[in-house]
């Protein structure tokens, strides 16, 4: 008998662990619908891998993948909430259209993904410079650091974003 192919392996993994994973996510999210979506997305991630490896600890692996999706979910919620709060503070006539809101949220999500993995201070420096338009000396003064530290953080953030966008091999 030949070994199962990747699709059969994931089908078996799904049959054995989907219910458990969805229950784990439901406890984290307090919402069965979102838990079902993220459980589904977890298995889609596995299907999209070039060569899924044989898993010795399938639940640990599924938990790791699902936790990453959960963090992305919470980050998106936080971005949406911050954006909606900002919109609520504006006069209604200056509010963007629903299409513009969707594009803005997608852009904010992409920025968050690009900055993922940066240390918090480097991320804050980058955002102050690029989004708030603050100067390096102003950032240094407000954060109680030197301008040189701000410059190095900007170099690090810019290199990180470049690698995230274009990969390290290009």
From TrEMBL:
NCBIfam families reported for this sequence: PRK12528.1 (NF009180), sigma70-ECF (TIGR02937)
Sequence similarity: Belongs to the sigma-70 factor family. ECF subfamily.
Domain RNA polymerase sigma factor 70 region 4 type residues, every copy: 109-161
Alphabetical list of InterPro entries matching this protein: RNA_pol_sigma-70-like, RNA_pol_sigma-70_dom, RNA_pol_sigma70_r2, RNA_pol_sigma70_r4_t2, RNA_pol_sigma_r2, RNA_pol_sigma_r3/r4-like, WH-like_DNA-bd_sf
Domain RNA polymerase sigma-70 region: 13-78
GO molecular function: DNA binding; sigma factor activity
Alphabetized UniProt keyword annotations: Sigma factor, Transcription, Transcription regulation
A Pfam family this chain is assigned to: Sigma70_r2
Upper classification of the organism: Bacteria, Pseudomonadati, Pseudomonadota, Betaproteobacteria, Rhodocyclales
Name the record gives this protein: Uncharacterized protein
Keyword Transcription regulation carried by entry: yes
A biological-process GO annotation: DNA-templated transcription initiation
């Amino acid at each position: 008998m030949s070994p199962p192919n990747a699709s059969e392996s994931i089908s078996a993994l799904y049959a054995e662990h989907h219910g458990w994973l969805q229950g784990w996510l439901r406890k984290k999210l307090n919402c069965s619908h979102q838990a079902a979506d993220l459980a589904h997305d977890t298995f889609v991630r596995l299907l999209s891998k070039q060569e899924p490896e044989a898993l010795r600890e399938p639940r640990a692996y599924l938990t790791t993948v699902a936790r990453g999706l959960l963090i992305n979910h919470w980050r998106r919620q936080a971005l949406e909430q911050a954006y909606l709060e900002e919109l609520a503070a504006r006069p209604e006539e200056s509010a963007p259209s629903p299409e513009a809101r969707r594009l803005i949220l997608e852009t904010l999500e992409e920025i968050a993904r690009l900055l993922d993995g940066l240390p918090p201070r480097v991320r804050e420096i980058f955002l102050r410079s690029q989004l708030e338009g603050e100067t390096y000396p102003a950032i240094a003064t407000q954060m109680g650091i030197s301008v040189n530290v701000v410059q190095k953080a900007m170099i690090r953030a810019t290199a990180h974003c470049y690698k995230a966008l274009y990969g390290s091999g290009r």
